[in-house]
Amino acid sequence: MASLLFAIISLLYASVGQAGGTAFVSLMAFFGMSSTEMRPTALALNIVVATYSTWLFNRNKVVDWAILRPLLFSSVPASLAGGLIVLEDHTYKTLTGLVLLLASAVMIMQRGRAADRLCETPLTASVSIGATLGLVSGLTGVGGGVFLAPTLITLNWASPKQAVALSPAFILANSTVGFVGALFSGQFPSPDLALYAISALAGAVAGTVVSLNCLNPAGIRFILVAVLVVAGIQLVLT
Protein backbone atom coordinates (compact mmCIF):
# COMPACT_ATOMS: atom_id res chain seq x y z
CA MET A 1 0.00 0.00 0.00
CA ALA A 2 2.75 2.47 0.94
CA SER A 3 4.63 1.83 -2.31
CA LEU A 4 1.49 2.42 -4.38
CA LEU A 5 0.85 5.69 -2.57
CA PHE A 6 4.45 6.81 -3.15
CA ALA A 7 3.96 6.13 -6.88
CA ILE A 8 0.69 8.08 -6.99
CA ILE A 9 2.16 11.02 -5.10
CA SER A 10 5.20 11.06 -7.38
CA LEU A 11 2.98 10.99 -10.47
CA LEU A 12 0.85 13.90 -9.26
CA TYR A 13 3.82 16.01 -8.23
CA ALA A 14 5.82 15.26 -11.38
CA SER A 15 2.84 16.40 -13.44
CA VAL A 16 3.23 19.86 -11.88
CA GLY A 17 7.04 19.94 -11.88
CA GLN A 18 7.79 18.86 -8.31
CA ALA A 19 9.64 15.91 -6.74
CA GLY A 20 7.10 15.33 -3.96
CA GLY A 21 9.23 15.80 -0.84
CA THR A 22 6.48 17.48 1.15
CA ALA A 23 3.97 14.75 0.33
CA PHE A 24 6.55 12.01 0.96
CA VAL A 25 7.01 13.39 4.47
CA SER A 26 3.24 13.61 4.85
CA LEU A 27 2.77 9.98 3.83
CA MET A 28 5.49 8.77 6.18
CA ALA A 29 3.85 10.69 8.99
CA PHE A 30 0.57 8.90 8.25
CA PHE A 31 2.35 5.54 8.53
CA GLY A 32 4.02 6.52 11.80
CA MET A 33 7.61 6.33 10.58
CA SER A 34 10.17 7.59 13.09
CA SER A 35 11.61 11.06 12.56
CA THR A 36 15.12 9.59 12.27
CA GLU A 37 14.01 7.72 9.14
CA MET A 38 11.57 10.26 7.70
CA ARG A 39 14.10 12.92 6.76
CA PRO A 40 16.75 10.75 5.01
CA THR A 41 14.05 8.67 3.28
CA ALA A 42 12.31 11.77 1.91
CA LEU A 43 15.62 13.24 0.74
CA ALA A 44 16.61 9.97 -0.96
CA LEU A 45 13.27 9.78 -2.79
CA ASN A 46 13.68 13.41 -3.86
CA ILE A 47 17.05 12.51 -5.36
CA VAL A 48 15.59 9.61 -7.35
CA VAL A 49 12.65 11.58 -8.74
CA ALA A 50 14.52 14.85 -9.33
CA THR A 51 17.38 13.09 -11.11
CA TYR A 52 15.03 11.87 -13.81
CA SER A 53 13.22 15.21 -14.14
CA THR A 54 16.49 17.17 -14.24
CA TRP A 55 17.88 14.90 -16.94
CA LEU A 56 14.70 15.26 -18.98
CA PHE A 57 14.52 19.06 -18.76
CA ASN A 58 18.24 19.55 -19.33
CA ARG A 59 18.17 17.26 -22.36
CA ASN A 60 15.46 19.45 -23.82
CA LYS A 61 17.52 22.57 -22.99
CA VAL A 62 14.78 24.29 -21.01
CA VAL A 63 16.72 24.85 -17.76
CA ASP A 64 17.78 28.49 -17.35
CA TRP A 65 21.04 28.02 -15.47
CA ALA A 66 21.57 31.78 -15.23
CA ILE A 67 18.65 31.98 -12.79
CA LEU A 68 19.59 28.77 -11.00
CA ARG A 69 23.31 29.30 -10.32
CA PRO A 70 23.08 31.99 -7.61
CA LEU A 71 20.26 30.08 -5.91
CA LEU A 72 22.37 26.92 -5.79
CA PHE A 73 25.46 28.85 -4.71
CA SER A 74 23.87 29.58 -1.34
CA SER A 75 21.31 26.79 -1.02
CA VAL A 76 23.74 23.86 -1.34
CA PRO A 77 25.94 24.71 1.67
CA ALA A 78 22.87 25.73 3.65
CA SER A 79 21.20 22.40 2.89
CA LEU A 80 24.33 20.53 3.96
CA ALA A 81 24.37 22.47 7.22
CA GLY A 82 20.69 21.70 7.76
CA GLY A 83 21.28 18.01 7.09
CA LEU A 84 23.99 17.90 9.75
CA ILE A 85 21.61 19.26 12.37
CA VAL A 86 19.62 16.63 14.26
CA LEU A 87 16.51 18.04 15.89
CA GLU A 88 14.80 16.49 18.88
CA ASP A 89 11.87 14.32 17.76
CA HIS A 90 9.12 16.71 18.90
CA THR A 91 10.94 19.74 17.51
CA TYR A 92 11.47 18.05 14.15
CA LYS A 93 7.81 17.04 13.85
CA THR A 94 6.58 20.49 14.86
CA LEU A 95 8.93 22.30 12.46
CA THR A 96 8.16 19.91 9.60
CA GLY A 97 4.43 20.18 10.30
CA LEU A 98 4.63 23.96 10.08
CA VAL A 99 6.62 23.70 6.83
CA LEU A 100 3.93 21.43 5.37
CA LEU A 101 1.21 23.87 6.40
CA LEU A 102 3.18 26.73 4.86
CA ALA A 103 3.65 24.69 1.69
CA SER A 104 -0.10 24.11 1.51
CA ALA A 105 -0.73 27.85 1.91
CA VAL A 106 1.79 28.63 -0.84
CA MET A 107 0.13 26.08 -3.12
CA ILE A 108 -3.31 27.56 -2.45
CA MET A 109 -2.16 31.10 -3.22
CA GLN A 110 -0.05 30.18 -6.24
CA ARG A 111 -1.30 31.76 -9.43
CA GLY A 112 -0.11 30.98 -12.92
CA ARG A 113 1.27 33.61 -15.28
CA ALA A 114 1.43 33.42 -19.02
CA ALA A 115 4.23 35.99 -19.28
CA ASP A 116 7.88 35.06 -19.66
CA ARG A 117 10.53 36.20 -17.24
CA LEU A 118 9.89 39.88 -16.60
CA CYS A 119 12.96 41.08 -14.71
CA GLU A 120 16.51 40.16 -13.78
CA THR A 121 17.14 38.31 -10.54
CA PRO A 122 18.93 40.56 -8.00
CA LEU A 123 22.02 38.68 -6.81
CA THR A 124 21.64 39.49 -3.12
CA ALA A 125 17.97 38.53 -3.00
CA SER A 126 18.59 35.36 -5.01
CA VAL A 127 21.40 34.25 -2.70
CA SER A 128 19.29 34.98 0.39
CA ILE A 129 16.29 33.05 -0.88
CA GLY A 130 18.51 30.16 -1.93
CA ALA A 131 20.10 29.93 1.51
CA THR A 132 16.73 29.96 3.27
CA LEU A 133 15.22 27.27 1.07
CA GLY A 134 18.37 25.16 1.29
CA LEU A 135 18.36 25.24 5.08
CA VAL A 136 14.68 24.25 5.21
CA SER A 137 15.36 21.43 2.75
CA GLY A 138 18.21 19.96 4.78
CA LEU A 139 16.49 20.33 8.14
CA THR A 140 13.14 18.81 7.21
CA GLY A 141 13.70 16.60 4.17
CA VAL A 142 11.53 18.56 1.74
CA GLY A 143 13.23 19.47 -1.51
CA GLY A 144 12.40 23.17 -1.48
CA GLY A 145 10.88 23.15 -4.95
CA VAL A 146 7.35 23.69 -3.65
CA PHE A 147 8.56 27.05 -2.31
CA LEU A 148 10.98 27.89 -5.13
CA ALA A 149 8.52 27.79 -8.03
CA PRO A 150 5.88 30.14 -6.57
CA THR A 151 8.62 32.45 -5.27
CA LEU A 152 10.18 32.82 -8.71
CA ILE A 153 6.80 33.38 -10.33
CA THR A 154 5.61 35.87 -7.69
CA LEU A 155 8.81 37.93 -7.96
CA ASN A 156 8.60 37.88 -11.78
CA TRP A 157 11.99 36.18 -11.97
CA ALA A 158 10.66 33.31 -14.08
CA SER A 159 7.60 32.28 -16.02
CA PRO A 160 5.62 29.24 -14.83
CA LYS A 161 7.26 27.13 -17.54
CA GLN A 162 10.74 28.24 -16.49
CA ALA A 163 9.95 27.68 -12.80
CA VAL A 164 8.81 24.11 -13.50
CA ALA A 165 12.07 23.40 -15.34
CA LEU A 166 14.22 24.95 -12.58
CA SER A 167 12.65 23.14 -9.63
CA PRO A 168 13.97 19.57 -10.23
CA ALA A 169 17.62 20.66 -10.49
CA PHE A 170 17.23 22.78 -7.34
CA ILE A 171 15.60 19.86 -5.51
CA LEU A 172 18.25 17.41 -6.72
CA ALA A 173 21.21 19.50 -5.57
CA ASN A 174 19.81 20.36 -2.16
CA SER A 175 18.39 16.91 -1.44
CA THR A 176 21.72 15.29 -2.31
CA VAL A 177 23.81 17.37 0.08
CA GLY A 178 21.04 17.26 2.69
CA PHE A 179 21.02 13.47 2.45
CA VAL A 180 24.80 13.34 2.91
CA GLY A 181 24.47 15.59 5.94
CA ALA A 182 21.75 13.38 7.41
CA LEU A 183 23.95 10.29 6.99
CA PHE A 184 26.87 11.99 8.69
CA SER A 185 24.57 12.98 11.55
CA GLY A 186 23.69 9.30 12.10
CA GLN A 187 20.26 9.19 10.44
CA PHE A 188 19.54 6.47 7.88
CA PRO A 189 16.62 5.88 5.50
CA SER A 190 13.96 3.21 5.81
CA PRO A 191 14.99 -0.41 5.06
CA ASP A 192 12.26 -0.35 2.40
CA LEU A 193 13.87 2.59 0.58
CA ALA A 194 14.65 0.59 -2.58
CA LEU A 195 11.01 -0.43 -2.99
CA TYR A 196 9.79 3.10 -2.31
CA ALA A 197 12.35 4.51 -4.76
CA ILE A 198 11.25 2.21 -7.59
CA SER A 199 7.62 3.19 -6.99
CA ALA A 200 8.44 6.90 -6.85
CA LEU A 201 10.51 6.72 -10.04
CA ALA A 202 7.74 4.89 -11.88
CA GLY A 203 5.30 7.57 -10.78
CA ALA A 204 7.67 10.34 -11.88
CA VAL A 205 8.11 8.84 -15.34
CA ALA A 206 4.35 8.49 -15.71
CA GLY A 207 3.80 12.02 -14.42
CA THR A 208 6.04 13.51 -17.11
CA VAL A 209 4.23 11.55 -19.82
CA VAL A 210 0.73 12.47 -18.72
CA SER A 211 -0.23 15.81 -20.20
CA LEU A 212 -1.60 18.45 -17.90
CA ASN A 213 -4.45 18.70 -20.39
CA CYS A 214 -5.54 15.25 -19.28
CA LEU A 215 -5.51 16.21 -15.62
CA ASN A 216 -7.32 18.97 -13.81
CA PRO A 217 -4.59 21.17 -12.24
CA ALA A 218 -7.09 22.60 -9.76
CA GLY A 219 -8.14 19.11 -8.71
CA ILE A 220 -4.54 17.96 -8.28
CA ARG A 221 -3.75 21.03 -6.20
CA PHE A 222 -6.80 20.43 -4.00
CA ILE A 223 -5.75 16.83 -3.30
CA LEU A 224 -2.16 17.76 -2.55
CA VAL A 225 -3.18 20.65 -0.31
CA ALA A 226 -5.51 18.35 1.64
CA VAL A 227 -2.69 15.85 2.20
CA LEU A 228 -0.30 18.57 3.33
CA VAL A 229 -2.79 20.17 5.71
CA VAL A 230 -3.81 16.91 7.39
CA ALA A 231 -0.21 15.71 7.76
CA GLY A 232 0.97 19.13 8.92
CA ILE A 233 -1.65 19.29 11.63
CA GLN A 234 -0.91 15.71 12.63
CA LEU A 235 2.80 16.42 13.03
CA VAL A 236 2.31 19.68 14.90
CA LEU A 237 -0.07 18.02 17.38
CA THR A 238 2.10 14.91 17.86
Automatic annotation (TrEMBL):
GO terms for cellular component: plasma membrane. Belongs to the 4-toluene sulfonate uptake permease (TSUP) (TC 2.A.102) family. Pfam families: TauE. It is found in: Cell membrane; Membrane. It comes from the Bacteria. Keywords: Cell membrane, Membrane, Transmembrane, Transmembrane helix. The chain crosses the membrane at residues 38-57, 66-86, 92-109, 129-153, 165-186, 193-212, 218-237. It is a multi-pass membrane protein. Its main location: membrane. This is Probable membrane transporter protein.
